[in-house]
Amino acid sequence: MQNSPEKRMETVLVTGGAGFIGCAISESLLRSFNRVVVVDNLHPQIHESGERPLGLADGVELIEADITDSATWDRVLPEVNPDVVIHLAAETGTGQSLEEATRHTHVNVVGTSQLLDGFIRNKTLPRRIVLSSSRAVYGEGAWRKEDGKLFYPGQRTSETLDKAEWDFAGAEPTAMNAAEVFPAPVSVYGATKLAQENILQAWAKSYGVETAILRLQNVYGPGQSLINPYTGIMSLFCRMAMGGRSIPLYEDGNVRRDFILIDDVASAIVAGAVSAQTHPTPLDIGSGEFQTIGTAAETIAARYAAPAPHVTGQYRQGDVRHAWADISAAKSVLGWAPRYNLEQGIVRLADWIDVQPDVKPA
Ligand SMILES: NC(=O)c1ccc[n+]([C@@H]2O[C@H](COP(=O)([O-])OP(=O)(O)OC[C@H]3O[C@@H](n4cnc5c(N)ncnc54)[C@H](O)[C@@H]3O)[C@@H](O)[C@H]2O)c1
Fold first, then answer.
1. Which end of the chain has the least Cβ crowding within 10 Å, N or C?
2. What's the pLDDT at 5?
3. CB neighbours of 43 closer than 8 A, spacing ≥ 6?
4. By the 8 A CB rule, do 85 and 125 touch?
5. Does 220 qualify as catalytic in the annotation?
């Protein structure tokens, strides 16, 4: 990572640290902290075997426990006494959250409040809490009318989507920037991520705990789940192309996303944990550029010599039309910058998938 911190005699506790992002930061955390402890329930939707993931660096202590259970924190916090917490554990399926709202709310919201209550009950406080929030808090974000004025278009409805009216007529989307764009989630998942942010900020300010809230765009790359059907569009596209299929593109294929390689997210999160500066409001983390889903799919199809992608006109409730981040604040506060572009990232992802055992074409 860019700001290569010296190793500190501190303990970091990572919730959900056995997942995609948790494994990717584990080596770097061992270099930066004296002790690294992960609390993760090895959720079967992510961890098929139920065993410690190979990607979790040796030297990281794994405690298998549920963050929503108060007993977890009464057991863990007095013994671990973390200086820094990186809170990653979450239910992450955007579409799934509309059908399983209670499950997402329970883990994401109650799981967060249980962690915070655990600190108070056990009379210990961390110095800093880093939260992996999401671009999902913005919903459709802010769009600019032809007269230059910003407005919030709200949620797209089945009525307009059924008519293939994908964009908001007469307006252009703008980059997501926490300093300027209000959150307005359009999925239960997004609403729970915003609730996490609000609960953490209110609590942390009251107790003088520092926060680093990072709103991540679409993360992809080596280590991404190849079995979770609810997340990971890039790995799904790779598995389709690997099987010789033409990748189906929802809407008109021109949905914009900011794809950020896992290595760049890992460096941002570790910077959030060790940086000298924190920031009172959330920071946006992405590549800082958008690509259309069609472009990403074409790049993947070319990598596998698969047929060209095709537009289906289907859509998914809860998906937003366009999303990309303005990363200028994150760069200046964290001293961080992404290093990989989409082409380089897709090569890394596909090379990794090629050597995974038992990977099945989709
Ligand atoms: N991957 C992305 O594209 C992305 C984008 C924006 C935000 N985020 C956020 O980053 C964080 C990590 O995402 P990820 O991609 O690593 O997800 P992941 O699903 O790979 O990892 C989440 C981990 O949390 C664990 N977990 C789930 N419920 C738990 C519970 N009740 N108790 C303990 N552990 C539990 C799972 O076992 C898993 O190891 C999440 O908070 C997510 O909202 C991810």
1. C
2. 56
3. none
4. no
5. no
Q: How many CA atoms lie within 13 A of 48 on its CB side?
A: 8
Q: How far is the CA of 108 from the centre of ligand 1 (A)?
A: 10
Q: Whose CA is nearest to atom 23 of ligand 1?
A: 16
Which ligand 1 atom minimizes the distance to the CA of 22?
16
Cross-sheet strand order for the sheet of 61-64: 61-64, 33-40, 8-15, 84-87, 128-134, 210-216, 283-285
Question: Helix axis angle, 111-121 relative to 70-80, nearest 10°?
Answer: 50
* Total-model pTM: 0.96
Report CA 151 to chain centroid distance, whole Å: 26
Is-contact 122 139, C-beta < 8 A?
no
**Does 2 score more than 50 pLDDT?**
no
Reply yes or no on whether the pLDDT at 234 is more than 70: yes
The phi, psi pair for 165, rounded to 5°, reads: -90, 90
Contact criterion met (CB below 8 Å) for 16 and 42: no
Ligand 1 shell residues, CB under 6 Å: 16, 18-22, 40-43, 46-47, 66-68, 88-90, 92, 107, 111, 132, 134, 193, 216, 218-219, 225
162-171 burial by CB neighbour count: b if 16+ within 10 A, else e?
eeeebbbeeb
3-state secondary structure of 196: helix
The catalytically annotated residue of 189, 220, 315, 340 is 189
CA of 132 to the centre of ligand 1 (A): 9
Whether 193 has a pLDDT exceeding 60, the answer reads yes
